[in-house]
Structure formats: structure tokens, C-alpha cells
Sequence to fold (433 residues):
Amino acid sequence: MGQPREGGGILNGMDRRDFLAVTAAAPGLTARLGVELERTGIVSSHEHLLWENERIAEKADFFTLASHYLANDLVSAGAPATPKSWAEFGPWWPAVRLTGYGQALRIAMRELYGEEPSSAAAVARINDKLERANRPGLYERVLKEKARIRYSVLDDYWHSEPMRPDERFFVLARHLDAFCTARQAANIRKLEESTGVSITSVGGLKKAMEKSLEQSLAQGMVTLKSTLAYARSLRYEVVPEREAEADFQELMKAPQRQPPQRLSDHMFHHSLALAQERGLPYQIHTGYLAGNGGNLENTRPMLLGNLFGRYPKVSFDLFHLGWPWMNETTALAKLHRNVTADFCWMWVLSPAGARQTLDEMLEAVPANKIVGFGGDYRYVELSYAHAKMARAGIAQVLSGKVAAGWCTEGEAVEIGKMLLAENAARLFPQKKA
Ligand SMILES: [Zn+2]
Fold:
């Protein structure tokens, strides 16, 4: 490690034994870097955290927290459904406690509620503590004091209208995806209602999209976000308006099985043109899909290749490193001035994959293009645990770089701060109201 590697695929070229040998050889260094990164206040590029009042009203217990994202690994392991009791959870816990999702839940329970979730009695005690924790002040304590997260970019997709979030904790990301997924007249009517714009043509649909953007900006939106990879391929062809219009008139006559492709392509390009006009960054989901059973082929980062040159003023922030296609994201971030690689979700999705990719990326991609953390959780305890895993992973990789003579310890600390705070703060600045 630390020397240029020859031959092989990007991941295959990684010699894991070298990587582990170097990092294991520098435990004091890793610990020192870990302490420095613990002191660094994080700017989280991406969260789905409920507003604190919503969280308190939900009365979240242990199994609520386990539902995000660990339930997906439980289903993958064979559990019949999302567990609601220890009897349903316990038998499957040994299979999933070593995954990133499992580790995050363990760290959260151990460090915030003093228990490993290892028995019915332990989980009952955790639930007592959680009940007492579900009150105002939870976010200040967990996000600010424990996790040392300065602020987070909040994707509150469950709010149908844009609403200004609590500025102590959040800045806002919003979607225009609903304008790219219409497949029947009822969808169009909903967009008319939310924007107050009459839509009888593609021109009207674009005006409504512009209105929706204005509504989000008025609530303090700092970035657009798209999760269209859950619904369609990330390849967006350039389609003339008259072809999109034909699709539009078709869906107004009769519901279509899928969002018509030409209309969807045309509208996504329009959202990019709006981002370009406004100088807004665009966070784009690439790679692995939350849940179970999604179609991953649609999600490869390379499918976006025709967009970066066409919209040079849009900063494309590629989420989740496009896992498992991290090498595509690495190459795209190196190649294009306006592409950044975002580690959000990655330190729990595949902690080893995150470390290996960062190890490679630091030697290939300018460090100001790497956004090192986004918790991507609904519950603050899990964002805390994820932040802890990210800081540890980054410290481990950076200590390898120092041990290999690639940089000094001081330079490693500087890079750690860029990854955890400075790059995200520059891309998604916290604006005062
Ligand atoms: Zn997310």
C-alpha cells in the first residue's frame, strides 16, 4: 500500500493483507488521528432524521430503531418479517450483528443506552431508557454533544410540502422527482394542487416544476436531490419537447404501466437546467437500493456520463459511491470538475468497502472532491453510531497513508477535516434566514 499498484481491477488490485498490515502496524497513530477526528465537528451531507417533535410523537423503541436499516439484513438473512419482539428478533441477531447495520445498532445501544441488545431482558431495559430519552433535548444531546455533528443536509421526503427545518440541526434538500415519474392524469392533478399551476402540456409541467423549485428555495433548500434510481435507469437521453409531449398526451388519456421514458428523460434534463440556472448542487442516488429486491443494474454511476459536460455549473454529488460500483464513482470524480464522491450511507452499507475505496480514492481524486460522511438515518442514535464508524474508518485509512510515507500526520488531519466537514460545508452551506 502507498505505492502505485499495477494491473488488475480497481478492487482486485487492492491487496487487503498489505492494507491490514500497515494499519495494524500503527495503532498509536490511528488512535491519535481518531482523537483528532473526534474533535472535528461533522457536516453530514445526508440524513432522513425525523424532526425532533415527530420523533418524540413516534415513541420509538428498540424495534423501531432496528427497522432502519437492520430490518433489510434480517429479511436477507431469512427472517419472516420486520421483528416487533425479542422472540422474532433474537434468533436472527447472530446472523446480522456483524454487518454494518448490525454494528451501528450495537454501538448506538451500547454507548447511548448502556446495553448490548443480547437478550429479552436487555432489550426491555433499553426500551425503558428509550422511553425516557424520547423528549425535547434528545437531538441537542445526541447530534451536537455526542455525535458532534454541526449540521446535516436533511432529505425529509415524507413531508409532501417543503417546510423549513430546525436550523440548529438542518439545512434542506428537496426532490423534483415527482415531475419525472408521472404515469397517469391523477399524478398530474396532484402536481397541479401542490404548485397551483395548471398543467395541460409539457410546457405546463415544466412551469409547475419551476414553481415547486421556488417553493423549496423559499423554505431554505440548499441542494436538489434525486432518488430516481429506485424507479428507472440513470441513463437520461436528450429528448426534444415534442416527443415528450406525445408521451404526456398519452398518459393523460390512459394510465401507463411505467412513467413514459421520453417524458421522464426530458423532465429530468429540465430539472438539471434549473439547477444550472440557480447554481444549485444536485445530490444523486447511485448504486445500491435500500430495502430488498431492487434492480441494481439501473443504478450504475457511469449511466450518468452524458450529463456532467452538459451542465457544467451543476455540482453532481454522487451518493453512496455507487456501491458496489465504487470504481466508477472514483473515476468520474477524478475526470470531471463538477463531480464529487459522497460516502453517505457507506460506512454502514459496507464499512470495509468504504475503507478500501477511500484508500484508493485519496491517491486518485483531489481531496476537496470527497464528501466523507452522511448518516442517512431516520433516528439520531443511529446517525451517532454511523458517525463514530466513519471517523474510525477514516482514521484507519489515513494512518495507513502516514505509515506508508504518503503524507505527514499533520496533512492527514487536514484531509480528515476536509472529508468530515469542509467539503460538505462548501457544497451545502448553512445559510442564515
Ligand atoms: Zn438517503
User: Anything to note?
Assistant: Residues 380-403 form the longest helix (24 residues). The chain has 19 helices and eight strands. Residues 1-14 have pLDDT under 50 and may be disordered.
